[in-house]
Amino acid sequence: MDIKVIYKDSEIIIVNKPAGIPVQTKSITQKDLESEIKKLLVAEGVKKPYLAVINRLDQPVSGLVLFARNKNAAAKLSDDHVKGRIDKYYRAEVLGEFEQKEGVLEDMIYKDGKTNMSFRVDEKDPRYKDAKKAVLEYKEVSPGELEIKLITGRHHQIRVQLANAGHPILGDTKYGNEASKEEASKRGIKELKLKAYKLEINHPRTGERLEYQI
Description:
Layout: E1 4-8, E2 12-17, H1 33-43, E3 52-53, E4 62-68, H2 71-82, E5 87-93, E6 102-112, E7 117-120, E8 132-142, E9 145-150, H3 157-164, H4 178-187, E10 194-202, E11 209-213
């Protein structure tokens, strides 16, 4: 597995996750990102490496994943994550173009545990009392390509919200429509065109604001 380490010190490690690889898995037959990073650290002489994932990416999504390397760093970064002090930016190739070149999408999203899919719902519908608010900011960087800043971190959020807005991500076989699937096929796209390309964090030891980008 080709894993590129973007940054590493005694507190954190940031890597570029390939598409199609889970961050973690319970399967003993499938490789996952966390296990592969531990192997790299062991090969460097680290005994019993500690890793705690801070920002989790869906298996089809590529890009930056942040791990804490000790419990203190994990506690601080997890607290920052919950309180919105970690800024996560994505790039997505979508079907069509938004009329407004930048804006905010806000929806109520419900996760169906049986199908592992999420969908937009009416917050007043009593069947979906566990629905959560999902908010993202988008900006067109070129026709059909968006920069997205996640304000909340819901299950499959970006994929659901863009599909609901009429601009599904190319290569999304789960939430795409016939038009997006046809466009992806026409372009030879076989992977989800969604990448976590930038992270802004407070270093857990120094407090320094840091930015990492691919």
